[in-house]
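[step 3/7] inverse_fold.run input=structure_tokens len=476
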């Protein structure tokens, strides 16, 4: 992307001055190298988002930003309902509440190494993954509605996990305001057999080693030591979330003219927050959030069971679970006064700083764990939220490496077996149902996650706590 399009305010902050209908500036946080590598569509989408009614402060993009549907992936925007602000299904995305949770295992690298092959096989056998994958859980209509209302809290009541897990999940594991009755029967049907499944694409379950610490105090609060083994789960709301996104993008596109909203791109379909359609979407989206939280909770128990079979006595404790495809009602200080805003984060992670009232007490001094997924051959990261990121990005940070090429391009350049064999020589075991899926997710298809994390830290969005290296990866 041409850096001449921006006003550069610092090494990692680039502004797009308002023009041609923009209501607020566009701001991209990235190093010069990262911004030069971004597709020009990121610029266009940041600008387009800035034209939406009721947007507050700026249209933001994170260091891992790339072209998405309507909003850039890595996009953040907040809207004021009282000022005619909107909610956008494209600003949440199709995989509602896709997110990451990381667990400690109480095990060291050397303890796991001897069992690595057996552990990889046990996890692959226990964790349904891949396109159309189904789990052992079958939900009838009543159970589906209970799950959509209760989220991870519902899953714990069904025997999946522990009550103390809920303290380490956004919204304590249950998103208030969900409206299961408004979710279409087709969306529910798609999800009926998919609870406790990873899905495909960039979703994964990964066994990782903590290889480097950057903040000893935060690492201790998060339960991390160098050489420890952790498990990270990355997935979302599966077929239900995709169906909700499909349906409401269509509803919003049709209704836009009725609401007097001029869309620069049909993919930015939205509805006023205070409209019946806007309120309905918030209710079904919140049900989608609960679906994702319940899904990751079920997968957590399946993972604990697999570990126990291979390494008896392994104790997996949840560090945190945070989503990166949501719209949340939050209080933020704007121009010196607190405001209730609806913050869209699409491929961006909430990153509350120290002392935030919505965080568990254990994170009061450190700030929120910010979980950053990498590629299956490089690294993942754990960051901590910063108080100053509220003013910079409505308390938001990056969510991963960000794609450097499309899945189609990756599949043309690599073969799945080639990727699996290459990673095996580095001690990384891959288990997947799909050779093409592995090729599409080849490490070379992604940006340098460490460069993304460096940019996020230098921009004041979050600070580095720990770098994680993959040992075993279960892919769809």
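[step 3/7] decode complete -> sequence:
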């Amino acid at each position: 992307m041409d850096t001449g399009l921006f006003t550069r305010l610092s090494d990692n902050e680039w502004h797009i001055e308002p023009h041609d209908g923009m209501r607020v500036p566009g701001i991209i946080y990235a190093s010069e190298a990262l911004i030069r590598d971004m597709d020009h569509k990121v610029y266009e989408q940041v600008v387009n988002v800035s034209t939406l009614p009721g947007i507050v402060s700026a249209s933001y993009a994170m260091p891992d930003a790339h072209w998405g549907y309507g909003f850039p992936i890595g996009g953040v925007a907040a809207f004021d309902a009282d000022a005619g602000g909107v909610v956008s299904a494209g600003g949440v995305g199709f995989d509602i509440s896709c997110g990451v949770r990381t667990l400690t295992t109480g095990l060291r690298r050397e303890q796991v190494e001897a069992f690595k092959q057996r552990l990889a096989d046990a996890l692959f056998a226990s964790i349904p993954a891949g396109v159309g994958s189904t789990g052992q859980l079958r939900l009838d209509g009543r159970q589906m509605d209970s799950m959509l209302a209760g989220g991870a809290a519902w899953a714990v009541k069904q025997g999946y996990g522990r009550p103390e897990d809920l303290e380490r999940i956004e919204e304590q594991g249950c998103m208030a305001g969900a409206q299961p009755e408004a979710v279409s029967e087709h969306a529910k049907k798609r999800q009926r057999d998919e609870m406790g499944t990873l899905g495909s694409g960039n979703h994964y379950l990964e066994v990782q080693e903590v290889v480097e610490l950057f903040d000893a105090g935060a690492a201790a609060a998060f339960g991390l030591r160098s050489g420890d083994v952790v498990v990270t789960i990355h997935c979302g709301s599966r077929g239900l979330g995709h169906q909700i996104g499909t349906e409401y993008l269509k509803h919003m596109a049709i209704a836009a003219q009725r609401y007097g909203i001029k869309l620069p791109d049909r993919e930015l379909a939205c509805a006023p927050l205070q409209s019946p359609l806007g309120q309905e979407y918030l209710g079904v989206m919140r049900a989608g959030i609960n679906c994702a939280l319940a899904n990751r909770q079920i997968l957590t128990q399946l993972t604990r069971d697999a570990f126990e079979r291979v390494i008896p006595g392994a104790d997996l404790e949840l560090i945190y679970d945070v989503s990166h495809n949501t719209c949340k009602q939050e209080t933020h200080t704007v121009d010196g006064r607190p405001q209730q805003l609806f913050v869209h984060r699409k491929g961006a992670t909430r990153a509350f700083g120290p002392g935030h009232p919505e965080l568990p007490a254990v994170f009061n001094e450190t700030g929120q764990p910010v979980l950053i997924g990498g590629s299956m051959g490089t690294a993942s990261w754990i960051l901590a939220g910063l108080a100053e990121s509220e003013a910079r990005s409505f308390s938001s940070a990056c969510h991963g490496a960000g794609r450097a090429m499309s899945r189609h391009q990756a599949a043309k350049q690599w073969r799945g077996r080639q990727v699996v064999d290459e990673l095996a020589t580095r001690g990384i075991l891959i288990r997947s149902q799909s050779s093409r899926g592995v090729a599409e997710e080849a490490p070379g298809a992604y940006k340098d996650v460490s460069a993304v994390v460096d940019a996020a830290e230098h921009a004041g969005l979050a600070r580095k706590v720990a770098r994680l290296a993959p040992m075993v990866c279960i892919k769809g």
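[step 4/7] annotate
The chain has a mean pLDDT of 96.
The two ends are 32 Å apart (CA to CA).
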